[in-house]
Structures are given as structure tokens and as C-alpha cells.
């Protein structure tokens, strides 16, 4: 995998020439990012320059660009942020506790609502953990369907991200809204595919312990091919729409994340890959049917919002390719290894524990389940990638302007439903 | 160059002026085509003897993750048609306000009594409008042909080892099947299983427990593939025939 | 028909009648500009746009107006009440006063003083004061930030705007708008005729007036993804509608001025008249919307940097170039 920026950033400009990398914990990290100065997220505001006329601005929980109900308390000196404190929990629904109360069968539709931008991934993660507990082997047809669905979901999720990022940097009454409507037009195609498969556009409840609940209907693969081919051509259009000096001015050098900080905070997914670390669970720890395809992982080293944009757009293309490749190889066979669910307590794993993680569009989505032999889990811990991305905010916001904070927030792409659970 | 890319943005948005509209004002004008498997609202159905199919087993109440179904079990009484004793349901409510459309209640119903239908969601003007009482659910039965998934069909689709040799053998003579809804469902399942039976070799490696079973069933099943196209349609139209 | 540019001998009578005509016309244009923009943007985004009120949503502006009139006029408790109520009224006054000197056809003007252009630019830039007032009086942090941005932006973009307007002034030798239009007789529009400076001055004027009227890519004061709604955050009902109206009027005036100064005003191939003026200014108006719904937004410091580093020097060079042109001619 090549490591290197494909565009000039303010920092890349200082270096000239090839990217030097250093070895941090076995990972090759671009050298220029290891030298970043890190702001103090615990800055004592009272001891900050008493002459400065600071203004505390509560961004959120109701704010157009906090993507849900995140509240960020910003201490502003003029328009420059001195300190940012994110307050989480406005969307806390007690999902982990609910999981303890519900049976293995009932949990799937509930965790759907965690990362409400890519429900397919939540179902996949939790059901893979249950399958690991039960030690059942999922039939290959189900694995292929799951993988194809996951990739389509990734495309849909990144499309939504691109649209909302447009809103963040371009405004809801302006070019951003146009981009938003265009990406939603294509995202709708993905959702139509899911509707054809599962009957729901969202919150499908199509995975179950041991396999899938819905088999591929007739002609679905043709629909997928048509829709994904169409989306692939439209991605070019988004690039033509977005890659102009204004967008670059708003994103290049904004919200630069150094990979060491990212690793310390457990950030993963496109954010980590945009910071120069080549890590993707689909390739590095294949699950489902990912070992059947070749996966190219896009990596950028600049670590700024533009790098994250580039990584996500390339991932979209890559996902389309993976989905189309896998679609051709869907084997025949049953779609579930267990008997169909006929009651709430049908699934009863032996006492034990399991951790399974998958690569959701936002990073490593992990599920840790402990079973005590009863039909509901003893403990179910979800590891949402968004929470770790949100943890970056206090490090990224200080020193930037309000507009940049909004662009940074947008580029981190966290989903509050998942952060708060 | 950079200014040219600004012009590109203008070009893209101008290009889109000529594209067809992508949204429609709902629900007054136009309507969206629902996918075959679309699920929105519920109905309770009568069985082939004209009796209420629900046997009041309360399984749907137990499995509902939102706990919005409440079933009142009646005493066992002989069925008027067959004379055999069976359970009855005296009251049934389903609160659509909190339903998460997870299809689990449909999946578990042993009597094929509750189904989800492909209808357009209607907004209610009061909370009670979304509270489906037993009367409303039975009134919905006339829309039953809009349904895709009967419980049997869903379970057949998921069953790793289809274990009903009789319906498979009797598939050509559909009317002979004991339960009305099960007949097309069995037809569908046999058609679906026919294909895996023919190509079960790749699947066999990873699912060792099953390679014996499908192999046994291959010969009788192989005759049914012509039915495969018609099966889903039959599944939706059969209730209206009766 | 015309005596000294007056339609009705008496300047007072003329002013009164023209005032009524121009104001009501401009209000109608502003209202229907909203409709047009909504339709246009909707089609760009593959949406139908307003469809419900009237044929193709044509009555939508009236419905919006009625809706805004019915709405409660909320005043935050901690707001500065007199200023809060006064600001939106003053905001509309600035563009309406500017309309007095903008001719829409030969003689179709409230008054055409010898410093007409100067007056128009000066009065329309006064809008920043009530905007600042609104932001301050709302006692809201977002409104305050928006007002600060608006003030900074309007003040700095005033200069390139004036410099760009200087080019036709230098070429004509008069501040009177009527004279400037007359100087573009015979298709020698300033946007094209002195080949170099005119065209760039047109672009400069166009973009500077985008910034003046807070349109994308310079809509920083009301950047709704950052500042919720900028100065209008706390406003509701018709008093919000007034600010909204003023923005559209301001944009319309900017496009009318661009048409007058650079595109030959009411002159055109075929018979001259108000139709050409309306066509040209609405065309510029449409381009503004087209840009608005296609581009993203700059950051405020980038905007300032662009103003002082690019637009200002460019403006100075253009004025020099046109002065040299005039000398050499
Ligand atoms: S579909 Fe609705 S009623 Fe049925 S189990 Fe799910 S939540 Fe309950
Ligand atoms: S609808 Fe089905 S599951 Fe529910 S009580 Fe009746 S028979 Fe049992």
C-alpha cells in the first residue's frame, strides 16, 4: 500500500519530497504528523489570559450541524476557540441495559437504532458476536448476502456523510443543500435495494443468529448491479461538484489529526486511514465473506478534513467494486444455520463470552457479550467507533475558528445514536 | 484551473435541471411503488374454515421487543368446522405507535394468524388511530393479499433443512395441502430449495451437518423448478381465491 | 414626453408616482424572486419545489406572507426591545431608498441626481448598521457573531465594490446613472467594450456585490450550519420577513446596478426600454441564484484575505487601466 498525500497541504508543503514515516507500535506513521503540537483539552479557563474577553458558546444540543444532539461548549476568544468540551448523553437510550433484558432473538431490531445511518452493520456486529458465543457456522450464502449488504450500506452511509458534510461547509441554503439532495437521491437507491430484500428501507431486522432472515428475491442482483453502476457514475459527478477551490479552502489543513493521538484515543475507520495508518478490519481480520475478495484500502497521510473526504469517496468506489464482485459469487444454499426462530427464547448459548468487531463505515464496531446460559445476555458491551471519534473534538477544536469546528465535526462523521447508545 | 473547477460545479447543478424529479408530494399526489416485501401494517386473518386463525398462544406478545401486543387467551373450545379443540383469542391489541416493524411477531406465529401488509402508511390524527384493536386487525384482512410474508413462508425461507417431504411431493397438487396458506408457501419453499439442492456441493464444505439432508431431497425436488417463478405470486393471490 | 428626464413636469409629482410604481414593482420582484429561487433550486436538486398553492406554487409568496403575518412576534426577554423592533424596519429602508435613484428605463426613475451612483452605493451599504443593531439587540451569541461578521464583511467589500463601480464612472466621466447608461450606446457595454478593464470590473462588481448582499459563497454572516441563522436567529414572524425581504431587495438592486453599469441598462438590440433592463437584471439575479445553489461557502478570514489581497489590488489596477484608456482614447 502506498503511503503519501495526493495533494499539497500546508504541512506537506513544508516537507517537500517523499513522506518520511516512523514506526509507532508497529504502524508506519507519517513523520510530519508526529510533530504536531497537541492542545490541552483540560485547559483551565479561569487561569487563561484574564485580559481576553472570552465568550462561552453552547453549540447544541439543538444546532444544525452537531448531527444530532451533541452539545459542545466552546470558549471563544473572538471567533477562535480556546477550549471545547463535548457533552454527551442527550441521546442515551440504555441500549446496553436493554440488551440484558431482551433475549438474543429480540436484540437485533433494537441495536438497529444505534448507528442509525448504517443499521446493517449493527445487526451484523451483534449477531456475529452471538454466533461466536453459540459457535455456529453461518452458511456461505448468508455470509455473502451479509457482505454485499454491508458494502451497500457502507456506500449509503458515506453518501449520507458526503451530503451532510456539504451542508456543514456549504450551508443548508446553498450549494451544500444541492449536494445533499444529490447524494440522498443516490442513497435512496441503496435503500430501495434493502427494501426489496428485507421489506424495510431502514432498521431491517434481517440478520438473525445463525444467518439471515430474508433470502435474495428474484432479480435482486440485477437491481443491485444497475443501482451500484449508476451510483459509481454519480460519484464522479459529486467530485466535479465538490473539488473546487472553495471546498479545498474549507477542508485542507482543517482538523488535522495526528495518528498517534488517534491511536491513543482508539479512533479507527476512515479517520485513522486519512491520518496515514493503513488499518482496515475487512482486510486485516476478515469476517463474513471478505476473505473471498481483494480489498484495496485507501490511505491518505495528511490527516485533515480533505484527506477524510478523499478516503471516504475512494472507499465508496471500493465498496461498489466489492459488492459487485461478491454478488457474482453468491453461492446457493440455506441462509441460516439454525432452525427458524419460533419463540423468543429459541437461542440459548452456553455460558461464555465473545468479542467480535467489524469494520463499520465509521470504524471498528465491536460487540462484547457475556452469556450465563440464559436466553438473554448477561452483559452486552458495544464499542461504537463514533464515541472515539467524538473524543477527538477537544483536541481538534482549540485554535480553530467556529467555521472550522463545524467542518471538523462534519468530517469526523460521528453518529450520536451510537455515541450515546 | 481552479476557476475551471468552480465552473464544473455550476455545470453539474445546471445538468441536474434536466433530470427527472426525484421526489413526489405524498400522500395526495402520486404514490410510491412499494417493494414486494414491503411491510407496514398488520392484519389478523381467518383460516380456511372461516374461523379466526389466531389461537391465542401469546407467542407474538412474548417476542415483541417493544411489548406492544397484548393477547387475551380464551378457553379452549372445539372448532366449529373440524370439531377439534383449539385455542381462541378473545382480545388482541397492537399499538402501532411503538411498533418497530421488526416482523418478529409474524415470524413466530404458529397459526399463520398475524401478517404484515404492503400498504401505504396512513397518518393518524389521534393516538387511538394507531392503536390496532382486534376489529381493526380483522378489518384489515381484506388487504391480506397485499402481504408477502406469512409466518410459514418466512420460516420456510430460513429453514436450513426443509423437512416436509409430503408437501414437496404434493407440490403439483396444491389443493391437497392441509393449511391454506401453507400450500403456496410450500410451493415456494420447494422451488427455492430445488436450486440449492442442485448446487449444494459448494455449500456442503462449510455446513457439514447438512450435506446429507439436501442430497437426499434432490431427486424429488428436481421436478419443481418450473413453479419457481409463479410461487411468490401464488403466495399472494391464493387467499383471494378462497 | 420627457422634460428634463421627468415624466410628469412636476418633480414632486413625478417622484411620488415613480416611487409608488418602483417600490411596488420591486416588492413584487422580490417576492417572486423567492418563488423563482425556490423553483430553480428545487429543479437543480431534482425536486418539484412549491406546488401546492396556486398553479406551480405561483401563489406561494402570498401564502408565505400571510403565514408570516399571522405568526406571533416573539421578543426575547433579555433583548433590547426598542432596538430589536427598530432594526428590521431600518434594514428595509436602506434598499428601498436605493431604489429611488435606480432607473429602470429612460425616465423611469424616482430621481436621477448627479451623484446618483454614489448615493446608491452609500445608502445600500448603510444596511450594515441596522443589521449590526439587530444582532446586538437580540442578545444572542449567534446573532452577535453573525452581526460582527456582517459588519466586517460589508465594510471591507465596500471598497472593491466602489472601485469596480469607479471603472464605468471613469470611462463616462459622470456619477449620474443615466449618463453612464447613455455612454454605453450602440452595444458598447462596459462589460465588453474597453476590452480588458470593463470585463474584470464587471466580475469584480458582481462578486463584491455577492459579498455585500451575503450570498453564497460569501454568506458568512448567516452561515446557518455555523451560526444557526446569524442575525435573524431571534426574529420571528413578519419582522423576520422584513429582514428576509431586505436581503432579496438588496440582491436585486445589486443585479440591477450590475446591469446598469456594465450591461448597457435598458439599451439593447431592438427597441430600448424597461424590458431590456428587467431582462438583464433578472438574468444577473438568476446567475446569483445559480451560484448560490452550486457553490460552497468560504470562511470569514479567507473572505477577508481575498478582499484585501486580491479584490482590492485588482480594483486599483482596473481603475488605473480605465483611466489610461480614457487618456489614450
Ligand atoms: S413488528 Fe411490531 S408488533 Fe411485531 S414484534 Fe416487532 S415491534 Fe412487535
Ligand atoms: S397471532 Fe399468532 S402468535 Fe399471536 S397469539 Fe395469535 S396465534 Fe399466537
3D structure, described in words:
The complex is a heterotrimer of chains A (421), B (242) and C (329). Chain A is of the alpha+beta class and 421 residues long. Chain A has helices at 10-15, 31-34, 95-101, 104-111, 119-134, 140-170, 175-198, 220-242, 245-251, 259-264, 270-274, 281-284, 305-328, 385-390, 393-396, 402-412, 416-420; strands at residues 21-24, 27-30, 54-59, 71-77, 80-87, 207-208, 211-212, 352-360, 363-371, 379-383. In chain A, the strands form four sheets. A three-stranded antiparallel β-sheet of chain A has the order 3-4-5. A three-stranded antiparallel β-sheet of chain A has the order 8-9-10. In chain A, strands 1-2 form a two-stranded antiparallel sheet. Chain A is globular and about 70 Å long. In chain A, 61% of the residues are buried. Chain B has a domain at 35-158: Alpha-Beta Plaits, CATH 3.30.70.3270. Helices cover 36% and strands 13% of the residues of chain B. Chain B has helices at 2-15, 59-63, 104-108, 134-139, 151-158, 165-169, 182-198, 200-204, 212-221, 230-241, and strands at residues 41-44, 69-78, 85-95, 114-117, 131-132. In chain B, the strands form two sheets. Chain B has a three-stranded antiparallel β-sheet. A two-stranded antiparallel sheet of chain B has the order 1-4. In chain B, a hairpin with a 6-residue loop joins strand 2 (69-78) and strand 3. In chain B, helix 5 packs parallel to helix 7 (182-198) and helix 7 runs antiparallel to helix 10. The radius of gyration of chain B is 23 Å and the shape is elongated. Chain B starts with a helix and ends with a helix. The relative contact order of chain B is 0.12. The model of chain B is unreliable at 164-242 (pLDDT under 50). Chain C is mostly helical and 329 residues long. Chain C is 67% helix and 0% strand. The relative contact order of chain C is 0.14. The mean pLDDT of chain C is 81. Chains in contact: A-B, A-C, B-C. Chains A and B meet through helix 4, helix 7, strand 7 and helix 8 of A and helix 1, helix 2, helix 3, helix 5 and helix 7 of B. One iron/sulfur cluster (SF4) binds at residues 63-66, 68-69, 94, 99-105 of chain B.
Amino acid at each position: 500500500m502506498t503511503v503519501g498525500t495526493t495533494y499539497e497541504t500546508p504541512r506537506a508543503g513544508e516537507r517537500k519530497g517523499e513522506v518520511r514515516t516512523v514506526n509507532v507500535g508497529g504502524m508506519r506513521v507519517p513523520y510530519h504528523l508526529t510533530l504536531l503540537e497537541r492542545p490541552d483539552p483540560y485547559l483551565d479557563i479561569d487561569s487563561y489570559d484574564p485580559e481576553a474577553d472570552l465568550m462561552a458558546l453552547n453549540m447544541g444540543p439543538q444546532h444544525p450541524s452537531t448531527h444530532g444532539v451533541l452539545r459542545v461548549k466552546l470558549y471563544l476568544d473572538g471567533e477562535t476557540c480556546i477550549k471545547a468540551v463535548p457533552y454527551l448523553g442527550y441521546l442515551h437510550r440504555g441500549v446496553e441495559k436493554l440488551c440484558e433484558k431482551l433475549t438474543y432473538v429480540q436484540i437485533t431490531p433494537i441495536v438497529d437504532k444505534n448507528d442509525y445511518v448504517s443499521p446493517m452493520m449493527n445487526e451484523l456486529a451483534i449477531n456475529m458476536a452471538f454466533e461466536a458465543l453459540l459457535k455456529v457456522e453461518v452458511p456461505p450464502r448468508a455470509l455473502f448476502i451479509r457482505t454485499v449488504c454491508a458494502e451497500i450500506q457502507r456506500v449509503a452511509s458515506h453518501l449520507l456523510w458526503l451530503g451532510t458534510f456539504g451542508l456543514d461547509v456549504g450551508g443548508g441554503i446553498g450549494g451544500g443543500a444541492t449536494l445533499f439532495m444529490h447524494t440522498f437521491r443516490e442513497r435512496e437507491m441503496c435503500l430501495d435495494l434493502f427494501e426489496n430484500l428485507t421489506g424495510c428501507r431502514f432498521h431491517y431486522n434481517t440478520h438473525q443468529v445463525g444467518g439471515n432472515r430474508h433470502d435474495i428475491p428474484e432479480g435482486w442482483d440485477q437491481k443491485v448491479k444497475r443501482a451500484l453502476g449508476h451510483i459509481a457514475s454519480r460519484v464522479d459527478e459529486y467530485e466535479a461538484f465538490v473539488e473546487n477551490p472553495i471546498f479545498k479552502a474549507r477542508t485542507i489543513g482543517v482538523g488535522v489529526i495526528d495518528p498517534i493521538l488517534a491511536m491513543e484515543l482508539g479512533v479507527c475507520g476512515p479517520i485513522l486511514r486519512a491520518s496515514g495508518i493503513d488499518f482496515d478490519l475487512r482486510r486485516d481480520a476478515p469476517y463474513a465473506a471478505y476473505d473471498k475478495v481483494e480489498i484495496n484500502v485507501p490511505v491518505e497521510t495528511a490527516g485533515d478534513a480533505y484527506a477524510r473526504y478523499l478516503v471516504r469517496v475512494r472507499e465508496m468506489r471500493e465498496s461498489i467494486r466489492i459488492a459487485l464482485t461478491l454478488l457474482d459469487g453468491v453461492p446457493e444454499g440455506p441462509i441460516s444455520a439454525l432452525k427458524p426462530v419460533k419463540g423468543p427464547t429459541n437461542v440459548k448459548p452456553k455460558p461464555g463470552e465473545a468479542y467480535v468487531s467489524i469494520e463499520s463505515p465509521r470504524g471498528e464496531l465491536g460487540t462484547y457479550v457475556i452469556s450465563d446460559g440464559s436466553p438473554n445476555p448477561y452483559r452486552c458491551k458495544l464499542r461504537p467507533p463514533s464515541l472515539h471519534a467524538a473524543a477527538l473534538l477537544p483536541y481538534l477544536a482549540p485554535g480553530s475558528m467556529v467555521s472550522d469546528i463545524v467542518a471538523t465535526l462534519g468530517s469526523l462523521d460521528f453518529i450520536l445514536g451510537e455515541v450515546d447508545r | 484551473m481552479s476557476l475551471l473547477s468552480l465552473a464544473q460545479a455550476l455545470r453539474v447543478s445546471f445538468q441536474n435541471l434536466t433530470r427527472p424529479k426525484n421526489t413526489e408530494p405524498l400522500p395526495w399526489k402520486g404514490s410510491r411503488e412499494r417493494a414486494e416485501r414491503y411491510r407496514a401494517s398488520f392484519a389478523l386473518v381467518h383460516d380456511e374454515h372461516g374461523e379466526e386463525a389466531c389461537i391465542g398462544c401469546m407467542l407474538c406478545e412474548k417476542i415483541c421487543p417493544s411489548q406492544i401486543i397484548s393477547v387475551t387467551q380464551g378457553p379452549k373450545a372445539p372448532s366449529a368446522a373440524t370439531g377439534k379443540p383449539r385455542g381462541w383469542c378473545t382480545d388482541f391489541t397492537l399499538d402501532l405507535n411503538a411498533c418497530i416493524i421488526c416482523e418478529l411477531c409474524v415470524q413466530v406465529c404458529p397459526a399463520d394468524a398475524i401478517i404484515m401488509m404492503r400498504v401505504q402508511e396512513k397518518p393518524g390524527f389521534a393516538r387511538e388511530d394507531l392503536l390496532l384493536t382486534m376489529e381493526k386487525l380483522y378489518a384489515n384482512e381484506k388487504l391480506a393479499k397485499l402481504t408477502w410474508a406469512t409466518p410459514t413462508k418466512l420460516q420456510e425461507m430460513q429453514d436450513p433443512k426443509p423437512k416436509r417431504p409430503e408437501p414437496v411431493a404434493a407440490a403439483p397438487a396444491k389443493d391437497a395441502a392441509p393449511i391454506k396458506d401453507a400450500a403456496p408457501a410450500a410451493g415456494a419453499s420447494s422451488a427455492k430449495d430445488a436450486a440449492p439442492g442442485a448446487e449444494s456441493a459448494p455449500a456442503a464444505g462449510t455446513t457439514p451437518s447438512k450435506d446429507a439432508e439436501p442430497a437426499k431431497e434432490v431427486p424429488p425436488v428436481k421436478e419443481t423448478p418450473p413453479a419457481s417463478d409463479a410461487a411468490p405470486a401464488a403466495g399472494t393471490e391464493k387467499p383471494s381465491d378462497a | 414626453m420627457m422634460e428634463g428626464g421627468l415624466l410628469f413636469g412636476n418633480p414632486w409629482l413625478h417622484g411620488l408616482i415613480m416611487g409608488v410604481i418602483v417600490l411596488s414593482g420591486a416588492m413584487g420582484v422580490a417576492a417572486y424572486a423567492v418563488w423563482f429561487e425556490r423553483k430553480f433550486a428545487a429543479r437543480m436538486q431534482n425536486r418539484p419545489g412549491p406546488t401546492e398553492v396556486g398553479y406551480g406554487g405561483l401563489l406561494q409568496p402570498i401564502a408565505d406572507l400571510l403565514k408570516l403575518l399571522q405568526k406571533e412576534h416573539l421578543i426575547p426577554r433579555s433583548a433590547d426591545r426598542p432596538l430589536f423592533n427598530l432594526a428590521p424596519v431600518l434594514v428595509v429602508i436602506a434598499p428601498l431608498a436605493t431604489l429611488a435613484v435606480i432607473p429602470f428605463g429612460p425616465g423611469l426613475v424616482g430621481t436621477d441626481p448627479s451623484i446618483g451612483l454614489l448615493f446608491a452605493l452609500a445608502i445600500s451599504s448603510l444596511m450594515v448598521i441596522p443589521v449590526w443593531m439587530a444582532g446586538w439587540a437580540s442578545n444572542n451569541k449567534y446573532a452577535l457573531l453573525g452581526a460582527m461578521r456582517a459588519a466586517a464583511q460589508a465594510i471591507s467589500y465596500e471598497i472593491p465594490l466602489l472601485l469596480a463601480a469607479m471603472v464605468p464612472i471613469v470611462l463616462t466621466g459622470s456619477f449620474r446613472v443615466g449618463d453612464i447608461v447613455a455612454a454605453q450606446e450602440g452595444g458598447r457595454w462596459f462589460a465588453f467594450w474597453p476590452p480588458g478593464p470593463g470585463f474584470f470590473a464587471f466580475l469584480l462588481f458582481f462578486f463584491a456585490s455577492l459579498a455585500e448582499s451575503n450570498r453564497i459563497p460569501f454568506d458568512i454572516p448567516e452561515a446557518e450550519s455555523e451560526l444557526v441563522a446569524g442575525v435573524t436567529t431571534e426574529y420571528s414572524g413578519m419582522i423576520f420577513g422584513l429582514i428576509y425581504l431586505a436581503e432579496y431587495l438588496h440582491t436585486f438592486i445589486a443585479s440591477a446596478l450590475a446591469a446598469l453599469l456594465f450591461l448597457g441598462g435598458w439599451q439593447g438590440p431592438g427597441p430600448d426600454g424597461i424590458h431590456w433592463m428587467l431582462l438583464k437584471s433578472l438574468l444577473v439575479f438568476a446567475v446569483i441564484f445559480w451560484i448560490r445553489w452550486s457553490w460552497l461557502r468560504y470562511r470569514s478570514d479567507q473572505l477577508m484575505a481575498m478582499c484585501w489581497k486580491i479584490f482590492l489590488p485588482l480594483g486599483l489596477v482596473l481603475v488605473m487601466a480605465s483611466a489610461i484608456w480614457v487618456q489614450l482614447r
